[in-house]
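pasting for the record
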Amino acid sequence: MKSLNIRLNIIVFTILTAFFSCEEDDATIGDIIAPSNLSVEAEIVGQDADNPYGDGSGVVNLYATADNALSYKFLYSATEVNAPSGQAEALFTNLGVNTYTVTAIAYGTGGLSTTTSIQIEVSATYSPPQDLIDKLVGNSSKTWRLKSEANGHFGLGPVGGQIPVEWYGAGPEEKVGVGMYDDRFIFNIDGTFTHITNNTNDDPTVDPSGTVFGRDGLIDEIGSGGNVNGADVENLPYNDYTSSYVLIAPGGVETISLDGLSFISYYTGGNHNYQIFDRSVPNELLLKTTDGNNEFDWWFILTSEEPATNDFTTDYDNLVWQDEFDVNGAPDSANWTYDLGTGTDGWGNLELQYYTDSPDNIIVEDGLLKITARAEFFSGSDYTSSRIKSQDLYEFTYGRVEFRAKLPEGGGTWPALWMLGANFTEVSWPECGEIDVMEHVGNSQNTIHGTLHFPGNSGGNAVSGSTTNATASSEFHLYSVEWRPTEIIFLVDDEPYFTFDNDGTLPFNSDFFLIINFAMGGNFGGTVDPSFVESTLEVDYVRVYQ
């Protein structure tokens, strides 16, 4: 790869400033000298004979040198970047080939400065894909944090490494108390980036103070203080701030480029670009950045889910059964079988779909079980979908059941994650009992239901609780039930919202099996939106603990 160097040398004549003296004091302040021989160089990344305006990333490396200069600043496209060493990476994002003016300022003693400008032509062709924007921003903004509970959530390796945290990876909560775990990072759809340095403040608009963590010698760029611990500076005082970000793809690698001295979790200096190494895990980003000394690559696991903050303690911590949906194709036949067709009276609920085992309706791919309801005429029904169950394959009594899922949306949609008594074929329903771990209807978006059906309390007379979940269809959440001999507790993201008293007279004391389905319409799903085309229920995993 070649690059174009544009060099402009200007000799600047300066004006001698006045010296002030006191009749009684004879203070010597030394020479006050303005920088001279200011030279500016612009290296347009990816420029060669075939690409005279660069590789389309819009990235330009700027270099400034001058005699007697103490620090530098670059101005371009309404952006102001402090560059103490005279080096900075500039980003130009207006699509197409555009001409920009870059101004360099060199500062000398006494605040005297020298200024010069150059013009450059740069091409920008990258437009980030919608799925990346949706992941990073959500509906309009999304808050991220370092996933401190994960092994290897923070670490380092060689520059250009492809194995996360190859040399060192922090264990769960290993860095507690250094000023990084209470940071929050908000990416807004308008391109602004907010770094909250202490999310435990009751009102950050009133008290924006916090502390941050960074590399000794590099973090000096943003302030002083804190506790030096080896190569790190812990708890450097720092206030919340708002800057900007853009999504770029230099060399085809999706990258979050933060403005100025903005950073994520650990201050490393450098160009403040964070490569998106992996974004395949729901609600997670694996990022890496190269530090300002070009010495290490630093790795970060971010999550948009907050840690559990409740005092709930489970009785069950032994994982006895699971399906992680990590093998592409049909659901594992050792774990699941199908219910096909329309059932009796629309599965007893006047539902409108025909359940199939077609990969158009049900498939495992990318680590997820995906059940898609589609508006299509099939065997007398106006919609198709799918329903699977562990009946006769896996049945159990008591335990904690976890479904991690992202729910579909649209009027008339009715996904459910639930359990049915294994003696269903012998005693029928509702005598067998039913535990609905999660039900959701698109006509009541963001309301989550946990429900129990049993004799005397079935259909519209079921015993139920509900809670709200503002991101039920845009993010993955954990839907679970703690099934005990004395009580049944319903939870979302480990937060209990409904508790039912169990006893020996009820049908919730013998084996049940698991069911996952996505219905359309019916007496709970309601009216289907006439514009509905399709929507998908995504399940990351199912786990049973006893």
